[in-house]
């Protein structure tokens, strides 16, 4: 067994240690995430059992054993046991004179990692730009609205005809409606109330609300990771974010009876959001069987006022995204007809909450 396992687990590159029989001696945390397995499941198994269609993979390992020379391959295609194909930069290095039974060290670096970081940085930058525009727009709208409302109140006092005062009441009512709409665009404006939080308690609260709203007609499945610890976050705001996403799924479904929603949680080691790396993160998947997001809307789904429903405001997902962003997290969406998945990534550490 390798010593200094903690050091290996803090390396973002996947590392697999093999003995001279190509049996797994150790697998670090990044390797477990990349190969979608666990070290305890792999220890002592042959390298061929880590993948499907592993002939090329095993041939490369045997080549290094036989030649005692390192092997490097770029963009190597690996088929995981789940059936998912990944592409990695592969480096296999022979270990000579090892006292712990290690013959080969295999380094795996996901090729799409940098692309993912770049995409997330672009998304985060776009979100920050959108929030800045909204804040500026809100300021420009609310100031004259206050003037219009005040003028309507003064005018109402001077009008002798009660029938004419109905017009001033319309002005005041519509000014208040516009003010409330702008406040919703800004999202929650209170500083987050950061306390230790159980994410499953949040999800169960939302589940109970949706079950009640749908008259117990909507099927909601749960697939929770019980090992997730508590982490600091604002309970009320995260409930609002998840509720907005789940309600959106319920609203686009043909009927509550046809709607099936899955709530799933997983831990994420070495979570990277943009250029920031976090040792441990929480992943929440919200999956529905609805018609999906139109492809031409998918890139703008989190922008305010973007909606595919005639009666929608386009604010629910925008507010959810703003809340997740305040927690230092990221909200993503993948959609196809019959399966839409919203994924919330949240760092599980104390210094992430933002008040902007």
What keyword list fits this structure?
3 domains; 5-stranded mixed β-sheet; alpha+beta; 6-stranded antiparallel β-sheet; Beta-Lactamase
Structure description:
The protein has 356 residues and is an alpha+beta fold. The protein folds into 3 domains: 106 residues, Beta-Lactamase, CATH 3.30.450.20; 72 residues; 154 residues, Histidine kinase-like ATPase, C-terminal domain (Heat Shock Protein 90, 2-Layer Sandwich), CATH 3.30.565.10. 42% of the residues lie in helices and 26% in strands. The protein is built from 10 helices and 13 strands. The protein has a 6-stranded antiparallel β-sheet with strand order 2-1-6-5-4-3. A 5-stranded mixed β-sheet has the order 8-10-11-13-12, sandwiched between helices. Helix 8 packs antiparallel against helix 10. The longest helix is centred in the middle third of the chain and has 47 residues. The radius of gyration is 26 Å and the shape is elongated. The two termini are 47 Å apart. The relative contact order is 0.10. The model has no long low-confidence stretch (mean pLDDT 81).
């Amino acid at each position: 067994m390798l010593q200094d396992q903690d050091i290996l687990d803090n390396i973002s590159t996947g590392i697999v240690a093999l003995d001279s029989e190509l049996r797994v001696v150790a697998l670090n945390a990044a390797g477990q995430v990349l190969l979608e397995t666990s070290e305890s499941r792999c220890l002592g198994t042959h390298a061929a059992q880590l993948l499907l269609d592993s002939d090329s993979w095993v041939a490369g390992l045997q080549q290094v054993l036989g030649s005692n020379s390192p092997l490097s391959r770029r963009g190597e295609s690996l088929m995981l046991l789940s059936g998912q194909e990944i592409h990695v930069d592969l480096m296999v290095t022979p270990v000579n004179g090892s006292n712990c039974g290690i013959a080969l060290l295999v380094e795996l670096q996901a090729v799409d990692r940098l692309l993912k970081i770049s995409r997330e940085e672009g998304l985060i930058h776009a979100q920050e730009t959108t929030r800045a525009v909204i804040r500026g727009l809100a300021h420009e709208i609310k100031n004259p609205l206050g003037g219009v409302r005040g003028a309507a109140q003064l005018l109402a006092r001077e009008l002798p005809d009660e029938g004419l005062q109905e017009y001033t009441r319309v002005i005041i009512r519509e000014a208040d409606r516009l003010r409330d709409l702008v406040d919703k665009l800004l999202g929650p404006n209170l500083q987050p109330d950061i306390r230790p939080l159980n994410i499953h308690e949040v999800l169960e609260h939302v589940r109970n609300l949706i079950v009640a709203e749908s008259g117990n007609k909507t099927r909601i499945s749960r697939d929770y990771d019980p090992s997730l610890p508590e982490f600091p976050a604002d309970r009320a705001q995260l409930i609002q974010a998840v509720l907005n996403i789940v309600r959106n799924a319920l609203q686009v479904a043909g009927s509550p009876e046809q709607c099936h929603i899955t709530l799933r949680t997983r831990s994420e080691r070495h979570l990277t959001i943009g250029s920031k790396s976090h040792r441990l993160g929480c992943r929440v998947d919200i999956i529905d069987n609805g018609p999906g997001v139109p492809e031409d809307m998918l890139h703008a789904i989190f922008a305010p006022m973007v909606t595919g429903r005639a009666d929608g405001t386009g604010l629910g997902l925008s507010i959810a995204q703003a809340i997740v962003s305040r927690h230092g997290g990221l909200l993503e969406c993948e959609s196809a007809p019959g399966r839409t998945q919203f994924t919330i990534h949240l760092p599980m550490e104390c210094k992430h909450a933002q008040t902007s």
